[in-house]
Amino acid sequence: MNSSLIQLLVLAGVAIFLILKLRSVLGTRDGFEKPPVPLEDVRPRARRDFEVIDGGPDRDITDHAPDGSETAKALAAMKLVEPGFSVNTFLQGARGAYEMILMAFERGEIDEIREFLDDEIEAAFVQVINAREEQGLTISAKFIGLKELSLVEATFDRDTKRAEVTVRYVGELTSAVRNKAGEIIEGSEKEIKRQRDVWTFGRTMGAADPNWQLVATGE
């Protein structure tokens, strides 16, 4: 066997050895494979622009009262006594209470709302309703909707656990006053008027009765 053939066989053996060695390190590639991921793509992702911080402001309160204000402190104290209390849920209830109480008062149907009125407010409502009846006056009213509802103030007595929350309303309704003959003497059944009210609701936090009562009215 000449030297050229021997040299060729040696080179072939070296080539086969190198191929086997490469396969053991890189593995076998079949068909299309994605190119290696660039180095910059595997770097740690940047952190979010925000993080949830434990013990931060209570948005249920700060959405309606400045953080650190007396009203915010009162609302926070209410939550300590009654953890299930929510300002947003309270305001939703106050929205429905406004229409219910206002319309019952206009119709003179005090029994429908008696449990939502404290004694003084109930007495004042009854006095007005009785006076209308004595004069033979009736009111036809229709609630259109609320244009504004906002929390004005909140107070809390830590000794008695008595809470009061004041809410400002701007409502729209039609209202017409008729005399005994059925004639409209005030207002209109077609003209929408805007009515502004400031109502205060009170309740003892932690009590079994979940109902808030109307304790003061104004505008």
Question: Describe it for me?
Answer:
Strands 1-2-3-4 form a four-stranded antiparallel sheet. Residues 4-54 have low confidence and may be disordered. A hairpin with a 4-residue loop joins strand 1 and strand 2 (162-178). The chain is 35% helix and 29% strand. It is elongated and about 65 Å long. The longest helix is centred in the N-terminal third of the chain and has 24 residues, at 3-26. The protein has one domain (60-218): Nuclear Transport Factor 2, Chain: A. With 219 residues, the protein is α+β, with helices and mostly antiparallel strands. It has helices at residues 3-26, 59-62, 70-81, 87-107, 119-134, and strands at residues 138-157, 162-178, 184-204, 213-218. It starts with a helix and ends with a strand.
The residue fraction in helices comes out at: 25-40%
Q: What about the largest sheet?
A: 4 strands, antiparallel
Uncertain stretches of 5 or more adjacent residues: 4-54
Number of strands: 4
Order of strands, main sheet, comes to 1-2-3-4
- Whole-number radius of gyration? 38 Å
Q: Taking all residues together, what is the mean pLDDT? A: 82
Q: What is the strand content?
A: 25-35%
CATH architecture: Roll
CATH topology description? Nuclear Transport Factor 2, Chain: A
Q: How many structural domains can be distinguished in the coordinates?
A: 1
Distance between the termini: 118 Å
Structural class category: alpha+beta
CATH class: Alpha Beta
Shape: elongated
Output the number of helix runs. Answer: 5
H/E element sequence: HHHHHEEEE
